[in-house]
Amino acid sequence: MKFIFYIGHPAHYHNFSNVSKNLADKGHQIVWVVREKDVLFELTKGTPYKTYFIKEKAPKNKWGRILRILKRELIMFFIMLKFRPDMSIGTDLVITHIGKILNIPSIIVNEDDAEAVPLFANMGMKYASTILAPESCSVSPYEAKSVLYKGYQELAYLHPNYFIPNRKKIEELFGGREKYFLLRFASLTAHHDDGMNGIDDALARKIIAILETKGKVWITSERPLSEEFEQYRIAIPAKEIHHAMYFASLYIGDSQTMAAEAAVLGTPSLRFNDFVGKLGYLEELEHKYQLTFGFLTDKADELIDKIKEIISLSDSESIWKERKEYLLKNTIDVTVFWTQFFENYPDSVLQLKNEKSNFEN
Predict the structure, then answer these.
(1) Rounded distance, CA 285 to CA 308, Å?
(2) Predicted pLDDT at 197
(3) What angle do the packed helices 334-343 and 10-25 form, to 10 degrees?
(4) Which of 25, 52, 89, 201 is deepest in the core (most CB within 10 A)?
(5) Selection from 149, 105, 153 nearest residue 127 by Cα
(6) Which residues contact 104 (CB under 8 A, 6 or more apart)?
(7) How do 130-134 and 106-109 pair as beta strands?
(8) Average pLDDT by stretches of 10, the chain with 361 residues
(9) Would the pTM of this model clear 0.85, i.e. be above it?
């Protein structure tokens, strides 16, 4: 079979690396289409698959977004026309549109609730052949074309079956085994980030002052930093970021994805943005597993209190380890599931729906 994986975000590189390898090892043909986004080109350098890179130069405003989408549509049309895959897989509306035109099945792999990303839902999910999402994710009104699984996208690469933390990879960066806290400032420039806020300088100042009493503070940032924070900036190689997150005593940021990554790694995780309460998978990680905690941007005092609470715990590492183990007992090996699902598609959809129907009856 021939598969196209559309990679539009650094997390997607990690999402699809293991499943692409599994499929390639079984003799299937793999093509990656990689969109320019943050460190994504750096991450995918040297990939063993035929790879097309889409550079994006349009301005980051409404019309710039439209131009970028149109450019991606055109490029994807010619790639899919040439390669003629059995299916395209990813998280971008363009694969659904071109799939419709060329009669090629498109599978959207997503964990954002449809209500939180209305543009993507109306322009992407609507035209997808199938939507693959965690059980905690709301896919309304596209339930009929959705297949839900017990897990999270982050487990496709951070499950212990695939990720082995290695402190040696980051010791030189973080000064050996010294205790440290990791802060992450996202750019918040995606279409679904419009009007969304995160950690500003005043709050960052307060957070750093508290954390510095207990250990080192390091910042990794997508956006420019004020001069006063440059001393905390750390250039973590993109492929080593999860090792840095695993060994951190606490992660704090305004990014959804990294908060979830820290959570499934068993690192105390705090997120501060206006998406809190709107994404089912993070709500489940918070309220069912207590691995991450979210605070809206008008709740800065509550965030500060939670930071103080966590860093005052003498056994936070063992507490979060136990919570992570509970999560792993209640979730699946996502990579194995995805591999089997893609390889057996579309029969896999019918099989899973029949199994669900039999279970409910």
Answers:
(1) 21
(2) 72
(3) 60
(4) 89
(5) 105
(6) 80, 84, 85, 86, 87, 88, 98
(7) parallel
(8) 94 95 98 89 90 81 84 95 97 96 97 94 96 97 96 97 94 83 76 59 96 95 90 91 96 93 98 93 98 96 97 96 98 97 96 68 42
(9) yes
Cis bond upstream, residue 85 (ω within 30)? no
Tokens representing 306? 């939670």
Residues comprising the chain, all counted = 361
The second-level CATH assignment, the architecture, of 2-151+332-347 is 3-Layer(aba) Sandwich (3.40)
| Distance separating alpha carbons of residues 202 and 212, to the nearest angstrom | 16
Q: Which CATH class is domain 167-329?
A: alpha beta
Whole-number Å distance between alpha carbons of 249 and 36: 32
Which regions of the chain carry the CATH code 3.40.50.2000? 2-151+332-347, 167-329
Alpha helix locations (H) across the chain?
A: 10-25, 40-43, 62-83, 93-102, 118-123, 155-158, 171-174, 201-211, 241-247, 256-265, 280-287, 300-311, 316-329, 334-343, 347-360
